[in-house]
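debug: dumping io for the single-chain case to check the tokenizer round-trip. Nothing else runs in this session.
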Amino acid sequence: MRKIRNLLCIALLLLFFPCTIFADVELDRQDVRDYKEFFDELFPTNDSDGNTNETNSCVNVGEVYAECTGVNVSGYGTYSLDEYVAGVLPAEFGVTIQNDELGKAYAIVARSYLMAQTNNCQNSITSSSNEQNFSGSDQTTYRKYADETSGIVMANPDGSIVLAVYSLATADDCEPTSDGMCKFKRCTVFADTVEECTGEVKEFIVPRDTITYPYHDIHYGGVEPYIGEYLALEKNYDYVQLLKAFYGDNISLAHLTKAGSNSTSASVLSNALVCDPENNGEYVTEDGITFRVPNYNLEGSEGLSDVFDLTAGNVSQCPWYAKYRAIEIIESSTLSNDLKEKAKSVLLATFGNGNDWYGGTNSTLSYFKYSNNVNEPKAGSIVSWERDSHSYGHVGIVEKVNADGTVVISEGWNMSGAEGADIPENIKVITTTYTIDEIQNYNGTGSFIGYTYLFSYKK
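debug: decoded output
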């Protein structure tokens, strides 16, 4: 990852969850308070890993046709892609990885460089400062960053994978500012000097003592570890903000997808490298997290994934579907494994009728953020209603929010009605596009209660 000597460097990455249900019996509110006490003890208000997922930016995560069947490291052997990334992190960035966002960012940088430099792993790579240093052992501490970003690379607007160089700056590069800070300039691509930059020149205002490296044989390009560390630790940049700060706002994040038999090049799937809620069946994004939308429309259990527990209580009722669709969303998302397990634990411990599935009144679900403002739908959230026809209410899942303001919601039903037998044969799932007014009044047969956001949780 560079044309640079004696490097020290950085690293950076995010959240998700699942569910379970009762349907025909009114939820005892006292039981909910008991659950609240239990989860307050289980999940402290300040998450131990420091992730807050406060960003509201939409991450451009699409798909790119590129595959790596194995990384051949000269003198070391062949490794899986994530094994290789985990081996690069301690060799290149171990000293400066001080939080998870840095770790995730550098895992994506290392993976992107490798894919671009080796033509999708068709060529070997050396362990050196001219390419990427690699440690064949001691990967355990850093493997989580590779796993949490597994398959994610940076892509250029033309669909090519970014040759993600990175290099150090020297204290002599400081341009003093009037308030005693320093301005440092970086190039989004490799350059011997900033003046020779053929990409975008990025400017960073940081304290004078941020850069202490005295060595003068320095190049410019991509992430500068000391500046990255400052942005992550002092300015709370997440891994997406860090990558865009150094590589430019035009880069996108993309999942590696196996190419067809007639193609081995890295070419972007049509319209995939935009945050496109209309991209049905592909990844959609909310709060920096992506998940896959299968667009379920079916009768009976055939076609549902293995996530759906057909032996659980109330199978075929709307809370049963919402719970397991939420779990499926979490499982298919780019959340960290730790956050996935936490979210699934909360959802699996949540019960009640459709009108009980709102964090504002259900203390178990209050682990997640929620809103009773009908104008605040988000992809990857639970939506709950009261119903005029019965006391059970209704619950569904917000799958996408379209550019025109309409909202795509998937819902499960018992084909035999609310009192029908809770059996897999009675499962009916539909995916419908609603206007905000239709959500507010549930097509004239009910009233909106609120959204519970699966990708945001309380500190």
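debug: round-trip ok. Residues 167-221 form one domain.
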